[in-house]
Amino acid sequence: MLLGLFSALLGILGATLTNHYRNRQYRLISEQGKKIEMELQELRTELKKNFVDFQRLMLKLTESERANLKSQKTESWSSYFYRHGSNVYRWFVPKTQ
Asked: Which residues form the signal peptide (predicted)?
């Protein structure tokens, strides 16, 4: 009888210690999970902010490229023929040596 009581007390003590350490590990894991979730949330907001800044920068660059394209003068046919006239001369006029 005394041995049965002693083994029951050891079983209760073992279950209590197991539950205590499991609870402690669960709390530790949940606290670390909350910290990691907060860090992830901060990284997400920072990434969104950087993405918005990048989009603004790209918009400015495309606007400046559009302005540059509008400011460039298109070439007329006469200037094209003037520039490439020497090629026609070089290919079709025979060389004299």
From this structure: 1-18
Examine residue 23 and state whether it is found in any structural domain, yes or no: yes
Q: Is residue 83 part of a domain?
A: no
With a threshold of 0.85, does the pTM exceed it?
no
Name residue 97's amino acid.
Q
**Phi, psi values for residue 78, rounded to 5°:** -65, -40
pLDDT tens for the chain, 97 residues long, are 888 898 999 999 999 999 999 999 999 999 999 999 999 999 999 999 999 999 999 999 988 888 877 777 777 888 888 888 877 777 777 777 6
